[in-house]
């Protein structure tokens, strides 16, 4: 055991340590956002496997499923334990707290900390699914990874964030000594064909297909089974780097994969979620600025849609996946949870702010303080009611599962 005071150390959007008590509190706050309407037992047992369960949308889906819909499940993520020098990763602490929450709510959740791309992980996870859940009703695929080793070839692929076609530059938001600074033109390189292909290998649909196939081979799917993988479209402002870039090619592949799985008789869809501050998204140039401007626009009294948090979107997703509410699909068969973000008047207002943003007016147009606080919350800092001067136990055991 080792308790110590944990302070935010790092640069920009990257912190080296995470605060265990702060991360635990984040989980509790998310659960409180979607506490079940009755708190009672669900009418029938529903079971889910969530890949990418410790962070961002996968975490939100796990917590919303557990706390609002009484779903039992298995989560898979890739986190690091504490070392002599560093705390564990934030997702480690969030997973421990999610498991504690599940136990309190009388639900069965187990978490596997391993590389989701590996066949050995699939074997281990499916053994657990068979033992704990029997068959599953839902598979949520919410992985955001920088690289993937294909266990069948041994080859390792790296994903890149680059433009396709011609080079671009983007306005972007940086923090220098904690102060927000507008960068006028961060260059975006052009991806070559190999880089695009590698990004598709990492973030496209191949591994999702393998999970579905592995579940089918072991006869672990319930009759009403459905599966979703998360995708993003976003604004024209981030288009050159995101949707029209190398990552967009991977997202297009993921969306094609849903159609292929559906053609094979699997109820598979992608879910287009809205912009969120996550470890994966804050690393993308331009996204921090875009999200800060978007948040400011949606906070204005005269703009109709409200900001939809990941947990709100995840509750809406479960409503659709469980059949409680009808599916809200677009013409390409994708579930749309991002309509609030892409509403015409919202995008118009964000575009105007983006164009007029300068170093001098940045903090008037963009919610930069909110954004930086959200980034810090990803590591358990800036969380209400947490005493950051007190010692906190950093050696937290990986949950054994219930
Ligand atoms: N953040 C956004 O704005 C946004 C918007 C719409 C859709 N999405 C999509 O949601 C999905 C998740 O993204 P996020 O932003 O929530 O990411 P995130 O970084 O917050 O979470 C990624 C999760 O994947 C897990 N993971 C990473 N590599 C893994 C591996 N090899 N094996 C097992 N688990 C692994 C991590 O442990 C973590 O639980 C992505 O498909 C992303 O495109 C994100």
UniProtKB/TrEMBL annotation:
It catalyses: a 2,3-saturated acyl-CoA + NAD(+) = a (2E)-enoyl-CoA + NADH + H(+). Residues 86-319 form the Trans-2-enoyl-CoA reductase catalytic domain. It comes from the Bacteria. Residues 5-83 form the Trans-2-enoyl-CoA reductase-like NAD(P)H binding domain. It is an enzyme of class 1 (oxidoreductase). InterPro entries: Eno_Rdtase_FAD-bd_dom (IPR024906), Enoyl-CoA_Rdtase_cat_dom (IPR024910), FabV-like_NADH_b (IPR050048), NAD(P)-bd_dom_sf (IPR036291), Trans-2-enoyl-CoA_reductase (IPR010758). The keyword NAD applies. The keyword Hydrolase does not apply. Its EC number is 1.3.1.44. Coiled coil: none annotated. Residues 329-391 form the Enoyl reductase FAD binding domain. SUPFAM superfamilies: NAD(P)-binding Rossmann-fold domains. Keywords: Fatty acid biosynthesis, Fatty acid metabolism, Lipid biosynthesis, Lipid metabolism, NAD, Oxidoreductase. Pfam families: Eno-Rase_FAD_bd, Eno-Rase_NADH_b, Enoyl_reductase. Pathway: Lipid metabolism. Monomer. This is trans-2-enoyl-CoA reductase (NAD(+)). It comes from Kribbella karoonensis.
């Amino acid at each position: 055991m080792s308790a110590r005071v944990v302070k935010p150390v790092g640069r920009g959007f990257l912190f080296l340590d995470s605060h265990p008590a702060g991360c635990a509190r984040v989980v509790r706050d998310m659960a409180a956002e979607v506490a079940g309407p009755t708190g009672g037992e669900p009418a029938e047992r529903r079971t889910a496997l969530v890949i990418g369960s410790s962070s961002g949308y996968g975490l939100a889906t796990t917590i919303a499923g557990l706390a609002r819909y009484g779903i039992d499940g298995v989560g898979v993520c890739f986190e690091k334990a504490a070392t002599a020098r560093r705390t564990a990763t934030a997702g480690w602490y969030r997973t421990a707290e999610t498991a504690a929450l599940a136990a309190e709510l009388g639900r069965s959740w187990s978490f596997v900390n391993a590389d989701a791309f590996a066949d050995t992980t699939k074997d281990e996870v499916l053994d657990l699914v068979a033992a704990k859940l029997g068959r599953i009703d839902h598979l949520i695929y919410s992985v955001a990874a920088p690289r993937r080793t294909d266990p069948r070839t041994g080859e390792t692929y790296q994903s890149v964030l680059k433009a396709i076609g011609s080079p671009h530059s983007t306005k972007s938001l940086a923090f220098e000594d904690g102060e927000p600074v507008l960068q006028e033109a961060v260059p975006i390189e052009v991806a070559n064909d190999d880089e695009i292909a590698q990004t598709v290998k990492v973030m496209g649909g191949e591994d999702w297909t393998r999970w579905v196939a592995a579940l089918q081979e072991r006869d672990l799917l319930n009759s009403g089974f459905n599966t979703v993988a998360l995708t993003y479209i976003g604004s024209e402002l981030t288009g050159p780097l995101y949707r029209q870039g190398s990552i967009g090619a991977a997202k297009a592949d993921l969306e094609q994969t849903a159609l292929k799985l559906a053609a094979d008789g699997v109820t598979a869809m992608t879910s287009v979620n809205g912009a969120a501050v996550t470890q994966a998204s804050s690393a993308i140039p331009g996204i921090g600025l875009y999200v800060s401007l978007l948040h400011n626009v949606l906070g204005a009294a005269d703009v109709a849609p409200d900001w939809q948090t990941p947990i709100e979107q995840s509750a809406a997703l479960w409503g659709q996946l469980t059949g409680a509410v009808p599916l809200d699909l677009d013409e390409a068969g994708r579930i749309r949870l991002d309509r609030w973000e892409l509403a015409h008047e919202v995008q118009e207002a964000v575009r105007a702010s983006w164009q007029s943003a300068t170093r001098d007016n940045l903090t008037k147009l963009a919610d930069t303080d909110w954004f930086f606080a959200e980034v810090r919350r990803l590591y358990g800092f800036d969380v209400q009611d947490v005493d950051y001067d007190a010692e906190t136990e950093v050696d937290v055991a990986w949950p054994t599962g219930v």
